[in-house]
Amino acid sequence: NRIVELEIVPHPSLKHPKTIETDYAMKNGVLNVNVRAAVAGYVLRRWNVDCSEDHSLEGPEYHLWLKNRQALYGVENIIIAPGYQATAEIKQNSGTG
User: Fold this and answer.
1) What's the whole-number mean pLDDT along residues 32-40?
2) Structure pTM?
């Protein structure tokens, strides 16, 4: 029942990030969303949030980027989130690398 706080921001590649800030009612350019860890990957996938470390996903569907990837540590279903790849440190700590 762990709660994960996601810090979602407009995708850095957008030409008009203020539009996204307004659409999502972001405060200071950040949307803080608290979700259960069990559904975090599904939420990020449904919202097409780029979860890559360097905001490298391209395409018109990616209006959002996850700013605080470290919050996903230990979330089992995070592999389904767009662009997410575990870093070497996380892989070592989980015993998969």
Assistant:
1) 96
2) 0.84
